[in-house]
Amino acid sequence: MKILLTGVTGYIARRLLPVLLQNGHDVVCCVRDKNRFNTKNYETENLSVIEADFLKKDSLVSIPNDIDVAFYLIHSMSTQTGDFETMEQLCATNFRERIQNTNARQVIYLSGIVNEAELSKHLSSRKNVESILAESNFALTTLKAGIIVGSGSASFEIIRDLVEKLPVMITPRWLETKCQPIAIRNVVEFLIGVIGNTETFNKSYDIGGPDILSYKQMLLRFAAIRGLKRRIIIVPVMTPKISSYWLYFVTATSFALAKNLVNSMKVEVICTPNNLASMLGISLIDYDTSIKLAFDKIEQNQVVSSWKDAQTTDLLQKGIFQFIEIPVNGCFKDVRKTKINNSQSVVDKIWSIGGKTGWYYGNWLWEFRGFIDKLAGGVGMRRGRKSGTELAAGDALDFWRVLYADRGEKRLLLYAEMKLPGEAWLEFKIDEHNILTQTATFRPLGLAGRLYWYSVLPLHSFIFSEMIKKIASG
What global pTM score does this model have? Predict the structure, then answer.
């Protein structure tokens, strides 16, 4: 079959894509920015990539007419710009109108469980999207999931942050809310299983694992698996706003996402029973096993996708290609050069920078800068990195975003996503003479930007000097 896959830079679609290709499907990937999608990971003729922005109706002409099935895996809950409800409604409407004019017989939509009378804004928006997609001439199959557990998933990483950083947690009442978590492997199995399955046409199914747990139970069971003793104290006085700030400062999530998550976590997400798992022959994975499977992937450095890479920022909205050309005029630069002996070992060090490895010098200063960024409402340093050794355009790297990463060219280019009175780039490049060049570029915004540069100049003078020495040592 020829399948249109949307949301390709997101967590779910990145897990789904290799399975679709392995099953012999021709896959057309819809991306807003081709520079964020690394086709080198998929050596197959069955993959094609088109640029389409579902907020812009005119851009959808690139979608081919001869598709058989389309996956709708778009959501805007983590957006930090604009109203996500309006954005989701517009995306769904534009998608529906374009797909109706193709040969597609089926659209598969992954939504959230919406069985409660009172829903959060996020879940109400998901329900509204389903209604929009259902008003069509194609068959709609809707799968509704709650907490998705897998290496790199938002739920998994937030729980991991809380459990591994806080021996004692003072928590809000919503930790007693019950949900039905599902392993990412099962989610992919369900998505694959309903392709072209006429029994699922124009039907909606809740999908979840075998366990119904409160968020408190999920945290404590996670801690037990990790061999950690944790105490959770639930207090009734923590408002949704305070709860959002609590999540924001302790975990890697943005405040916008934390606020939406808190509102959703006050709503029970328990499946209405159905026979889809038995119909498709799917064995449901329990919560404890899904946690262990996730850590197996992490320990093997095989995390396929991370929710952090898909966080919506101004940079990703505008497109990475607009930032790859480093400006020259009106910029401050810190340029360091040094001769190296073994270029391959140095490239390996560059490709391992950040995350658990750190920045090779003054890590506490980098952490402090990340803390200041969090206080200012930025992303901070807690995002880390998806893989310990591999980088690709679009990856989150602490408070940086990877713009360009090519081992063959021995060049890595990063763009700062922290709160700054200007724009910042950090580049590592090795030339044919084995000269490593490390360049920090800052384009200030007004007087505040210039004052900022000169205020941090003393720190840069020894941080960047020592960092290049450590990297060059191989």
Answer: 0.74
